[in-house]
Amino acid sequence: MGKTPDLSNLSRDTGIIAKKDLEVSPGYPSEKNLKEGPVVLIECNGKIPCNPCETVCKRGAIVVGEPITNLPRVNPEKCNGCGLCIPKCPGLAIFLIDASYSEDRAAISFAHEYLPLPREGSEIGAVNRRGEVICKGKVVRVRNPQSYDHTAVVTISIPKKYIHEARGMKRYVQGYKGLEKNG
Ligand code: SF4
Ligand code: SF4
C-alpha cells in the first residue's frame, strides 16, 4: 500500500486536482478496476474531519479510519456501484464510473444540486473540473429520493475516452456550437 499523498496544498493553489495526483490518491481506483464495471471514485483532497462516505457504505468499500482527517480510501473489490455514498458527501467529491456501460460509452454519476433537475434522455454538455464543456453527453438517469435529502444523483453517458475528465454537466444553450466532434 503506497504512502498517502498530501494533496491539500495543490488544491489551495489551483482549486483543481491534477490527474497525476488523483491517480495516486487512495480514493482513485486502478484502470483495471475502472474497466471492470461501476466503481466509486473519490476526489477528496482536503485532510478534513469528515467521514459520512465511510459510515454510509455498509459494504466497507470506503475507509477513512483514524484519525478522521485521513483521506478516504476506496476498496474497489467491495464496491457494488450502488451510488448511496454520492449524495452523502458534503464536498460533492464522490463519483461513480461505469466504463462497462457500452462498447464506446461510459456512464458517470455525480451529485447535482441545481434545479430544475435535467430530464432523462436529454442531451447535455459534459464538463471537466474547471466547468468547461468537453464533450456531448446524455442524461440516462436521475435519482432524487427523499433519503438523498435534496441532493440528486445524475448519471450521464459520455464517450469512454473522457472518463478521467468529465465530472459534471451543463445544459445545452440553444445555438451552442463547438462540440460536433466530441459526441
Ligand atoms: S457506491 Fe455503494 S458500495 Fe460503492 S462505495 Fe458507495 S455506498 Fe459503498
Ligand atoms: S464525505 Fe466527502 S468530503 Fe467527507 S471525507 Fe468523504 S469524500 Fe471527503
Mean pLDDT: 88
- For the record, the CATH architecture of the largest domain stands as 2-Layer Sandwich
The largest beta-sheet arranges its strands as 1-4-5-8-7-6-9
Residue windows where pLDDT falls under 50 for at least 5 positions: none
Structure description:
There is one protein chain. This protein is α+β, with helices and mostly antiparallel strands and 183 residues long. The protein folds into 2 domains: 1-100, Alpha-Beta Plaits (2-Layer Sandwich), CATH 3.30.70; 101-183. The protein has 4 helices and 9 strands, in the order αααβαββββββββ. It has helices at 8-14, 19-23, 31-35, 52-56, and strands spanning 39-42, 62-63, 73-74, 94-98, 105-112, 123-127, 133-143, 152-159, 168-171. The strands form 2 sheets. A 7-stranded antiparallel β-sheet has the order 1-4-5-8-7-6-9. The protein is globular and about 45 Å long. It starts with 7 loop residues before the first helix and ends in a 12-residue tail after the last strand. Bound molecules: iron/sulfur cluster (2 copies). The site of one iron/sulfur cluster has 13 residues, from α4.
